[in-house]
Amino acid sequence: xxxxxxxxxxxxxxxxxxxxxxxxxxxxxxxxxxxxxxxxxxxxxxxxxxxxxxxxxxxxxxxxxxxxxxxxxxxxxxxxxxxxxxxxxxxxxxxxxxxxxxxxxxxxxxxxxxxxxxxxxxxxxxxxxxxxxxxxxxxxxxxxxxxxxxxxxxxxxxxxxxxxxxxxxxxxxxxxxxxxxxxxxxxxxxxxxxxxxxxxxxxxxxxxxxxxxxxxxxxxxxxxxxxxxxxxxxxxxxxxxxxxxxxxxxxxxxxxxxxxxxxxxxxxxxxxxxxxxxxxxxxxxxxxxxxxxxxxxxxxxxxxxxxxxxxxxxxxxxxxxxxxxxxxxxxxxxxxxxxxxxxxxxxxxxxxxxxxxxxxxxxxxxxxxxxxxxxxxxxxxxxxxxxxxxxxxxxxxxxxxxxxxxxxxxxxxxxxxxxxxxxxxxxxxxxxxxxxxxxxxxxxxxxxxxxxxxxxxxxxxxxxxxxxxxxxxxxxxxxxxxxxxxxxxxxxx
Length: 493
Ligand code: ADP
Ligand code: MG
What we know:
The protein is of the alpha+beta class. 40% of the residues lie in helices and 19% in strands.
């Protein structure tokens, strides 16, 4: 993934221009214009109504839930909700599209202009324009790998509601494109309007990429179809940018075409040229009147909106003094934010220092361990309240941060609480001054030469003494107490 805005070619820098079309499957029990079920993974062709199969004389009836979900999503991306929108027929032939057309929205979509703010790793934010969001039907699936000569068709997906969310060509690097998709995904998940599962195809991205010399007008773009992971999205963009720069620098021309991403090779290859744009012969679907929304309904939906990631981030920063970067990671997934907030509630002390420590342990230790075991937070063996319990033990000085790592590993293994494990394995920090003092005295007695050198001005040796005391106490001495007592001892003598 690159966050370079400019590719250094042999003829100087080139700027990337990226616009994304995201297809997001609407969370709804029934399809956009029929009552057939949308459950994923059902036996082929068991969820197909006469409308979906395009039987003659069947009429579409709009599903109110899908409309509500589109409005909710529109509000979540700061979009203008159009109280009047129109469904059009987009005509093309495809084996898994029995009607010979897809019902979509062309010139009058349900949601107009909006935007998303994305955060980049360097801490900066950028606003990415959204052109529109419209509702449309999904097609069925053609299955080519079950028979030597024949292809099969599964119409279960046919007619399922999709939201197509089209961005402005505002992104300038693969890092920005990845941040945009992540942000969009966290919003739809938070709203419950799309499950965002890219690997199941419920969120797919068409990636438009072009390059240009800085300051000149947009170049010709290639469109990479149906990219289904954020990693692939970044790879496809970086590959495409290099491919286009190489062509242009050799004096060639980019042809406007649709390409496919090959995830095994990390490259893109042509699918069909779009030199003469498709003529879909759009016209308003005569079976569907314009969709008219009551402003009061839109307001009602607006009032029922949950706290969105941006607002949650601002609140966490304000309430607990979290850093922007930590906060944006925590609100990135609804589950992470819920886990964090549950843990904060369970903390004994909610001082910013404790909350910050909790955030560090969540982002560092918990995420690290989850990644190592390829687990998601739902499968985390340490419940939120137990992580809070561990932080309490550190904050109260029962264990040092170093011993806490050991306790954490045991918590991960056993699912037990920190306090019980500390008790069981005798990991309590020793802060009894008398006990520490006697260890210190022994250490000083055993190292007379070092003591002499220290007193002669070799300050660095202080660390050596601390280390020895820690070693003697198996790391359990309170570092603060050791520092204080050692200083007193060495300076007094
Ligand atoms: P189409 O309907 O043919 O797909 P659109 O004009 O609706 O074309 O654009 C589709 C997407 O392509 C949008 O996300 C837009 O931002 C993006 N896009 C348009 N022009 C460019 C360009 N020159 N380079 C990169 N992306 C572009
Ligand atoms: Mg397109």
